[in-house]
Amino acid sequence: MIKNRFSKLYYFKSSYHFRSILCNVNIYRTIINERYILKCQRLYSSSSNDYSITKTRNIGIIAHIDAGKTTTTERMLHYAGFTRRIGDVDDGDTVMDYMKQERERGITITSAAITFGWKDHRINLIDTPGHVDFTIEVERSIRVLDGAVTILDAVSGVEAQTQTVWDQADRYEVPRIAYVNKMDRTGAGFGRTVNEMRYKLGTMPLVCQIPVMKKDNKGNTVFSGVVDFLNMEVLDWDKDSNGSIINKTPLSDKYPISGLFEETLKGRASLIESLSDLDSEMLDTFLELEDPMKITAETIKNTLRRVVLKGQAVPVFCGASFRNIGVQPLMDAIIDYLPSPLDRPAPMASLSSNESVKIDLKENDKLCALAFKVIYDSKRGLMVFVRVYSGRIDNRMLLFNTKTQCKERVNKLVQMYADDVEEIPSITAGNICAIVGLKNTRTGDTLIRFDDTRKNLKLQSIEIPAPVFFQAVEAAGISDEKPLDDALKNVLREDPSLHVYVDPDSGQNLISGMGELHLEIVKDRLLNDFRVNAKLGKMRISYRETATVGKIDHTYLYDREVMGKRVKAQVSLTISPLPENDLGLSEEGGNRVMLEQMIITDDSLDTKEQQENVSLLLPKTEIENALRSGLMTGLYRGPILGFPITKLLIKVNSIKLFGAESTKAAISTCVSQALVDAVKKGNPALLEPLMKVDIELTEEYLGDVLGDLTGTRRGMILGLDAAKSTFDKIDQNINIYAPPDPTYISSSERSEHTVLKSKKVIHAHVPLSTMLGYSSALRSLTGGTASFDMRVHSIGLMSDDQAKNVIREMQGGY
Ligand SMILES: Nc1nc2c(ncn2[C@@H]2O[C@H](COP(=O)(O)OP(=O)(O)OP(=O)(O)O)[C@@H](O)[C@H]2O)c(=O)[nH]1
């Protein structure tokens, strides 16, 4: 067996001879490990570095938790020949969920990247997490993707997190295709899900397949395959080959399932009609041929590609990945309909505050790459994932990080295969890979060639959401302090939604993050992966502080002697609350800083005229940087309980310098103190995170759950059922085809289906502090029949009574 595989390896081009030898060693190791990853496939993928960029797809899989992203990806890897055996989420042996914590919990935490070949194309695929606590993982992946596959659960339809990731993809204008998974489950509703896509996601779903249900030998109705509208054939998946073999039967009116042919004719005609509405070429063809059946599969495919690339519609497919049904046509659709890097608009990058440039993929000599993810690997150290937008990166190349203004050296370039890697010599525009050896690069930084003169070139960074939970972390003993510090530095570099700071009162490290699960995973990683000996405190809510008085002007003079030297600066600023409707989640900690109209004078000069036309010892940009960093320090700790200050508009009006005495440190300290004093004058108050909560439940529990939410939980009900705002976005006159559901189910299945249809969704805003442990409360209120999803909506002012309770509790100590 080994011999056979070796001979297969040597079949590849001689330039890959060396890698082949490495590969042989790997294969031997793989066989021993019984992981059966076919490393020889990697030769295919790395040789595809020479592939035309038009045959590359950088895509992500996005969905609500548990929709089946990892299950589907594992099938893709198997059918692409990447793995011999299909990994299973429930058995904890998937390639994509490789972290210990992921396998134990059966969930995706980090977005794993993998490269594989399919029909002469290279697919760089990122499997993203569905849980709301890891939304940042989705955000940073979507930022660098060209297209996405949205997976929907055929029973649950469009769920809350589906809407969130859909909105994220909308924000980056990422073209999408959709796959309705779990068609084998009782109560699966393909047509219902298609309709929900329309009114909950505000998109135009174009059905390209319909499910085929058959009676099995026990008389049960089971999902067996699909009808492909384009080729008018029934696809049946062979169970014995794990779905590798697909039997194709042309569909005609003789097909043994009654009504299937007629439904297909209806669906195909509707697809052509919708495409004619969107695309003038298709309209011309349709007018010319008059009969939808005369339009070839090729013509429909080309039209679908055009409308998907323009973001006008979303082709919809279906399957049951767990049963190995439906995955290969989805892989074909990735190639046929999702964009290559060349099909995407060139990204813009800023050169300065008022100058930007287009990054042209064809500019081979000008490197521009975005670091979108950093991970710590115990064997390889820190690995920085990059997407190259123009130019190329070679092994050992010298780079420049335009954010940190630091030189960086590439030690190794690697192609990722989930937790496994293969070294590659270079990477060209349009591709994704990981770099080993970068010391100061974080998520969101832009990398250029070291000799490039565009030292301030910056691609749009990634929005980092505000943390809402925090907990203290302490080394168990003095000898554990350094390992804890190192481990914290590494988890921080990996995860931009995690924050670590030292509480000046207690001297403890405080880590803050996006949710209870998020911090639990960090704790698990610190204790088990980094093996630090540390104690973690109780998880607490990260409140905020603000000034509530209309407008406060304040001037502060900083004048000290530091190590025998005089340091001095004076700042005048004005603070005022941001408008009521501001969510308090923007960058700069939910505040807005304005330095544009600031007047700079230098008091060390003789005349007023000289002072105002000062030629500065410090360049203006350095003064601005010192002011921003000082303001960030001041905003870190509010005067009430030391929580971050938020929702303020801070305008620096003037700064008075005193020649060489006004160092950068003096400016920072001065503005920081000016801000703290101003907030103290402004009647400070406490704020709390407000969550957007969506609860899906059957009608019988509606009263109890609503009563509970609006009572002690202080919730505000926004509405029941569908998200009307997205419904309003779409043209109600456009006809969307959705097949009837489900035509072949037994009466017991039908009653379950009816119950599912009568479910309601409550949308509410509820303070996070009242939602702790809500899953068990909801379980007991509804007998375990309801589910909920929540995410941060905004930061809102607390009532005086609530604030007093929090102050009392916090002052009671940790
Ligand atoms: N019946 C059925 N179950 C499925 C199907 N696909 C996935 N599942 C099951 O659904 C559960 C979740 O599957 P995953 O693939 O982990 O879902 P995911 O979307 O990757 O989950 P997260 O990454 O945690 O968000 C597992 O128990 C799967 O076995 C399917 O087609 N049919």
Automatic annotation (TrEMBL):
Task: Please provide, alphabetically and separated by semicolons, the GO molecular function terms listed in this UniProt record.
Answer: GTP binding; GTPase activity
Q: Does the keyword Mitochondrion apply?
A: yes
> Pfam families, alphabetically?
EF-G_D2, EFG_C, EFG_III, GTP_EFTU
Instruction: Tell me where on the tree of life, at the top rank, the source sits.
Output: Eukaryota
Coiled-coil ranges per the record? Answer: none
Q: Where in the cell is it found?
A: Mitochondrion
Going by the UniProt record, its keywords in alphabetical order are:
GTP-binding, Mitochondrion, Nucleotide-binding, Protein biosynthesis
Q: Any idea which positions bind GTP? A: 63-70, 127-131, 181-184
Q: Which GO terms describe its biological process?
A: mitochondrial translation; ribosome disassembly
- Gene Ontology cellular component? mitochondrial matrix
The keyword Mitochondrion belongs to this UniProt entry's keyword annotation: yes
Using the record's annotation, list all stretches that form the Tr-type G domain: 54-342
Q: What is its main location?
A: mitochondrion
What InterPro entries does its record include?
Answer: EF-G-like_DII (IPR053905), EFG2 (IPR030851), EFG_II (IPR041095), EFG_III (IPR009022), EFG_III/V (IPR035647), EFG_V (IPR035649), EFG_V-like (IPR000640), G_TR_CS (IPR031157)
Name the job this protein performs: Mitochondrial GTPase that mediates the disassembly of ribosomes from messenger RNA at the termination of mitochondrial protein biosynthesis. Not involved in the GTP-dependent ribosomal translocation step during translation elongation. Catalyzes the GTP-dependent ribosomal translocation step during translation elongation. During this step, the ribosome changes from the pre-translocational (PRE) to the post-translocational (POST) state as the newly formed A-site-bound peptidyl-tRNA and P-site-bound deacylated tRNA move to the P and E sites, respectively. Catalyzes the coordinated movement of the two tRNA molecules, the mRNA and conformational changes in the ribosome.
What family does the database annotate?
Belongs to the TRAFAC class translation factor GTPase superfamily. Classic translation factor GTPase family. EF-G/EF-2 subfamily.
UniProt cross-references to PANTHER family, sorted A to Z: RIBOSOME-RELEASING FACTOR 2, MITOCHONDRIAL, TRANSLATION ELONGATION FACTOR G-RELATED
What is the protein name given in its UniProt record? Ribosome-releasing factor 2, mitochondrial
- Supply the source organism for this entry: Diversispora epigaea
Gene name tied to this protein: MEF2
